[in-house]
């Protein structure tokens, strides 16, 4: 039978692990966003060779399951590469999650770059600005408005994907729920509790996203 006391105790103890989940998400965001900007610029200017490699990278990470990417890296390649074998599970998760999310963010940012009126780019060239100067002073400030809503969605999905960390031994929200379920055999109570915590956390993040979007709408 459903054990209400166990469920309530776990429900109120799980939030202690929210900082672990948010830390994983934030570190992965910094990596993915930095890489996505570079990839988007390469795609935008169709840099020879690099553009082709970028397309292959995006296709691979967008077309294969994240869990298989993580397992191939952390368990598969670790057999042959000492650096990976000695790597912490946290570093591995952040790395692969960052690489995975960057493939989605790249296309989001590229779409935002393409949304800027070409006439403004031509005006920049007529003033003697380089492509880098135009990108920094003309395109990026306008593209940010377009990119932030979908990038916020990417971050929310990234936060949910950190739950895969338990498969490599990370004790975050999902990892703690998994341990409690295994030790007590209270699977329904454990997984329901963690789902509720994720639900509340993501709902709060979605609310913040809405506030940011509204402020951007009013500003521009």
What can you tell me about this protein's structure?
There is one protein chain. The chain has 220 residues and is mostly helical. The protein has one domain: Orthogonal Bundle (MetI-like fold), CATH 1.10.3720. Helix content is 81%, strand content 0%. It is built from ten helices and no strands. α4 packs across α6. The relative contact order is 0.14. The mean pLDDT is 90.
Query: Oligomeric form of this entry?
Result: single chain
Please summarize the sheet with the most strands.
none
CATH homologous superfamily heading: MetI-like
Termini distance?
55 Å
- Tell me the β content: under 5%
Average pLDDT figure: 90
Per CATH, which architecture? Orthogonal Bundle
Give the overall shape. Answer: flat
What is the C-alpha radius of gyration, as a whole number of Å?
Answer: 21 Å
CATH first level: which class?
A: Mainly Alpha
- The stretches of 5 or more residues where confidence is low (pLDDT under 50) are none
Helix content: over 70%
By DSSP (H or I, 4+ residues per run), the number of helices equals 10
CATH topology call: MetI-like fold
Helix-and-strand structural type: mainly alpha
Number of strands: 0
Query: What is the H/E string?
Result: HHHHHHHHHH
Structural domain tally:
1
What are the main properties of this structure?
about 220 residues, mainly alpha, MetI-like fold, 10 helices, flat
SSE order and pairing:
Blueprint: H1 4-13, H2 18-45, H3 50-63, H4 66-76, H5 82-85, H6 89-114, H7 118-126, H8 131-161, H9 173-184, H10 187-219
Helix pairs in contact: 1-10, 2-3, 2-6, 3-6, 4-6, 6-8, 7-8, 8-10, 9-10
């Amino acid at each position: 039978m459903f054990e209400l006391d166990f469920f309530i105790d776990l429900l109120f103890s799980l939030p202690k692990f929210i900082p672990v989940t948010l830390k994983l998400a934030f570190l992965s965001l910094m990596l993915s966003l930095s890489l996505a900007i570079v990839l988007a610029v390469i795609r935008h200017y169709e840099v020879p060779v690099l553009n082709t490699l970028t397309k292959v990278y995006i296709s691979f990470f967008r077309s294969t399951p994240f869990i298989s990417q993580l397992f191939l890296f952390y368990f598969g390649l670790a057999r042959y590469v000492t650096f990976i074998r000695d790597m912490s599970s946290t570093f591995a998760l952040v790395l692969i999650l960052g690489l995975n999310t960057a493939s989605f963010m790249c296309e989001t940012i590229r779409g935002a770059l393409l949304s800027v009126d070409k006439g403004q780019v031509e005006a920049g060239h007529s003033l003697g600005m380089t492509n880098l100067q135009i990108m920094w002073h003309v395109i990026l400030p306008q593209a940010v408005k377009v990119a932030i809503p979908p990038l916020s969605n990417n971050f929310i999905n990234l936060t949910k994907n950190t739950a895969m960390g338990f498969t490599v031994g990370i004790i975050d929200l999902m990892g703690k729920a998994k341990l409690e379920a295994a030790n007590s055999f209270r699977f329904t109570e454990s997984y329901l509790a963690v789902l509720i915590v994720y639900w509340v956390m993501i709902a709060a993040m979605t609310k913040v996203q809405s506030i940011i979007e509204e402020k951007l709408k009013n500003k521009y």
